[in-house]
Amino acid sequence: LLSVAQALTLVLEHAKPKAPALTALRETLGLVLAEEVVSDIDSPPHDKATVDGYAVITADLVAGHADLGVLEEVAAGQLPQKEVSPGFATRVMTGAPIPRGADAMVMIERAETLPPVAGQPRVLLRETTVAAGQNIMRRGVALRHGDHVLSAGCEIRPIEIGVLAEVGRASVRVYPRSSVSVLATGDELVSCNRQPGPGQIRNINGPLLVAAALRTGATAIDLEIARDEKHELRERIERGLQSDVLLISGGVSAGVLDLAPAVLAVIGVRQVFHKVDMKPGKPLWFGVYEGERGETLVFGLPGNPVSGLVCFELFVRPALGRLAGKDQETHRTFVAELSVPFTHRGDRPTYHPGRLDSSQPPRVEPLAWQGSGDLQTLTRANALIHFPAGEQSYAAGLEVDVSRI
Ligand code: AMP
Ligand code: MG
């Protein structure tokens, strides 16, 4: 039986980053940049006021106060028309350019409007120490024309969207969003808007896997439920092969109606592996389809919801990360201390739901779990604890590997 590490290596060997494409900025949130970005502007574009107030000559305020003539008002978006000379000031709003001649801004809170003299507005400023450059942001201090602003490989968050907007990149080259199709299989399944009849259960994995795919930043198509019947499976799988990744839930175990591997073989999806030494998730099937539109990675996930989720976290998420140009996705495992003693017994390496706290180093509590059919307990989980095969008792404080879910 393949180990989890061996299986992951095989998955990643087949997951190649998608070809970068020029994409509208508003479509790029969560994607990975595939080019170096330089600035086409200075930021700020002019010496600008960082407060509302008066642009002055510092020498006019050496006494700590000054009665000055007001030349004009400049709002953000306007340009000063007059040069400031000794004895004068210009009212300037935050963000507006500093007029020539002035070398500091005195904020409006320090100003008192005086009656005009011969039609000339006047202001009394009181500020004991006025330093040259005070409350002025000089042109280009944040960014200069030609400066390198973002590197290929960076993940685009709202901050990067803002920076790209600032440097005029209404479209950028990114690794495109991956498409995922999700197909639930099983004669026992009904859609979640139905009351299950005798022997039936609601389709959990369809909605769960669609959501898991969306959360990685992929797009997702729900192919709904296929019966355990070869023709129906084939027709539905062929639709799913139009996506970059096809997730089939159920039908890959050893039951008489576990038809997926056989149908996949008929369609020409090449099996890379079937079954992994892990619990839950042992029946995992993985293969690759070379179609006209390119390569589709096909995962046959076990039908138990928790098993499917564990396989998604361990294999599908890293594969989607690789398609999207991300490297970090394979390094989600870290060490935590058990918060309580725990005995694990099992013939396979086990991924047990746990609750990580926020202490440093992190501590994790294994949750009382009824096995792979028990999704309810996972609502309290935020991690999977990795226990090696065999029986072992762990004291509280012992280190275990965990991965966040
Ligand atoms: P299978 O892998 O098809 O043998 O299914 C294993 C177990 O998971 C069975 O108990 C199924 O009823 C259950 N199961 C399969 N598919 C789903 C699904 N989409 N939602 C909830 N449970 C499922
Ligand atoms: Mg089934």
How would you summarize this macromolecular structure in one to three sentences?
The protein has 405 residues and is of the alpha+beta class. The chain has helices at 4-14, 158-166, 205-215, 230-240, 260-267, 305-323; strands spanning 21-24, 37-38, 48-49, 53-56, 65-74, 88-92, 104-107, 111-117, 120-126, 136-137, 148-150, 171-174, 179-185, 189-190, 201-202, 219-226, 245-249, 270-274, 285-291, 294-301, 333-338, 342-346, 350-356, 363-366, 383-387, 390-394, 399-404.
Question: Distance between the terminal alpha carbons, to the nearest Å?
Answer: 25 Å
Low-confidence stretches: none
Average of pLDDT? 96
Q: How many strands appear in the DSSP assignment?
A: 27
Count of helical regions: 6
Q: Which geometry do the CA atoms define?
A: elongated
The ligands found in this model are: adenosine monophosphate, magnesium ion
Radius of gyration: 32 Å
Helical fraction: 10-25%
The biggest beta sheet is recorded as:
6 strands, mixed
Strand content: 25-35%
Structural class call reads: alpha+beta
Strand order of the largest sheet: 7-4-6-5-9-8
